[in-house]
Amino acid sequence: MELELRHLRVLCAIADSGSVGRAAVALGFTQPALSTQLRRIERLLGEGLFVRSSAGMELTAYGADVVSRARDILTRADALVRRPPGGPATGVAGPLRLGVTNTPVVPMLLDTLRDTCPDLTVSVSSVYATGELLRLLESGELDAALGVDYPGLPVRHSAALAHRAIGTVPVFVAIPAGHPLAHRVEVPLEELSEDTWFVSADDGVGWPGAFYDACEAAGFQPRGTHEFHVLDQLQSMIAKGLGVTAVQPTLRPIAGVLVKPLAGDPLWQRHLLLWRREAVEAPVAEALHHHAVRTYRNLLAQAPHLQRWLSRAYTTTRPPDGLRTPGPTEP
User: Does a structural domain hold residue 77?
Assistant: First the structure.
């Protein structure tokens, strides 16, 4: 058996739907036939690509990398078919209303799109809550959006929308440089039980519930919390020793703030591209996803605290579910 484009499409369909059964329907297979195909692909590659969970079929760390590469190959193959003889690739053009939540991808992504897709006119709306972005997409007020969700709490929407993962990363913690745990390589969540926490507001898709669930699993509930998410002011308050907060691993800390991984990786966050099927043509969606993934990878590579965490994680064993960047391309 040799790996073919149709095999790559099978992997992407399972990742997008989160189910072998739904992928089989989409591809016109029976479920047993698609299950057999998946087993053959995994035997060929020598490692499992998916694991079953309460949320459905989830990618392993290796699977996320394979599906990421598969998407890139399929995008290039599809572009060859769409390209007119002797002419440039077409289809990445027109106005696009893009909603964005709190993600560091935006500045670099817009700069990249300006250079690589000059005929795509992007207007940006900043919205804190992914739940609100979903509402705006469903009502037709936005065409596409960059949002988040959390493992075990996958984003839910109508059939009018589609989504694809940009990357799944562990949530880190920002603490004052003078914190008693500042010397730790990784910070156990339970040892922050006496700290005051800055906790961002309800995002409509699982936060801060995922945070409080992780605290409960660690044996405590935060004794004091502030609802706050203005990042510059938040870092200044942490530097003054007024509390700690959960952060994305791409955060660039200011003087007086340290960013540390949480021991055991109890919290993860997935970054997503979402779009209206009828408003965003396939070439535009592919271009947005491709450049968002590349941008996010570059940001991750520039985060020294994340790179140190990665080097430790992969010299011992793969982290649970892995650092996923297509980063990852699950549904």
Answer: no
As a 3-state breakdown, the chain gives helix, strand, coil percent values, each rounded to 5, of: 40, 20, 35
| CATH number of the domain where residue 286 is located | 3.40.190.10
Answer yes or no: do 135 and 54 share one domain.
Answer: no
Write the DSSP symbol of residue 318. P
Structural domain of 15:
5-67
Letter for the amino acid at 96?
L
Residue 121, strand partner residues: 95
DSSP string, 244-293: EEEE-TT--PPTTEEEEEBTT---EEEEEEEEETTTS-HHHHHHHHHHHH
pLDDT (0 to 100) of residue 26: 75
Residue 86 confidence (pLDDT):
45
Question: What count of Cα atoms within 13 Å lies in the side-chain half-sphere of residue 315?
Answer: 6
Do residues 200 and 226 lie in contact, with contact meaning Cβ atoms separated by under 8 Å? no
Q: Average pLDDT for consecutive 10-residue bins of the chain (331 residues)?
A: 87 87 82 91 92 82 88 79 48 88 88 88 95 97 95 89 88 97 96 95 94 96 85 91 94 94 92 94 88 86 83 52 38 38
In a domain, 82, yes or no: no
* Global pTM value: 0.71
Give 111's contacts (C-beta < 8 A, 6+ positions apart): none
